[in-house]
Amino acid sequence: MKTDMKNQELTEKIIGTAYNVYNTLGHGLLERGYESALAPELRRVRLKVHQERPVPVRC
Predict the structure, then answer these.
(1) Which pLDDT score is estimated for 47?
(2) Fewer CB within 10 Å, N- or C-terminus of the chain?
(3) CA-CA distance, 16 to 9, in Å (whole number)?
(4) Phi-psi sector, 27: left (phi>0), alpha (psi -120 to 50), beta
(5) In this structure, are residues 52 and 31 in contact, taking their beta carbons and an 8 Å threshold?
(6) Which pLDDT tens digit goes with each residue over 1-58?
(7) Which of 9, 46, 26 is nearest to 37 (CA)?
(8) Distance between CA atoms of 15 and 1, rounded to whole angstroms?
(9) What are the backbone angles phi and psi of residue 18, rounded to the nearest 5°?
(10) DSSP states of 1-52 as a string?
(11) What does each C-alpha distance from 51 to 13, 27, 57 come to in angstroms?
(12) 56 in helix, strand or coil?
C-alpha cells in the first residue's frame, strides 16, 4: 500500500510537470522540443532524468 502511494505521487508529479511544460509552450513543437523543456523541469522538481538513453534489444 505504501508503495502504491509513492508511485501515485511520482506519477502525479511527472504528469503535472508535463502539463505545465505543454501549457507553457503550446502545441506544434517537435518531440525534441518538448523533451528539451521537460527534462530540466523534472530535474527542478528533484527527479532524476536521463535523456536519449540507449536501451539494449535482443532478438
Answers:
(1) 96
(2) C
(3) 10
(4) beta
(5) no
(6) 567 878 999 999 999 999 999 999 999 999 999 999 999 999 999 999 999 899 999 9
(7) 26
(8) 21
(9) -65, -45
(10) -HHHHHHHHHHHHHHHHHHHHHHHH-S---HHHHHHHHHHHHHHTT----SS
(11) 18, 21, 18
(12) coil
What CA–CA distance (Å, rounded) separates 57 from 59?
A: 7
Q: Check residue 1 and give its pLDDT.
A: 57
Return the pLDDT at 4.
81
C-alpha grid cell, residue 18: 508535463
Report residue 47 as a C-alpha cell. 527527479
Cell of 27: 502545441
The structural domains of the chain, with segments of one domain joined by +, span 2-44
Enumerate residues 6+ apart whose C-beta is below 8 A from 45: 13, 17
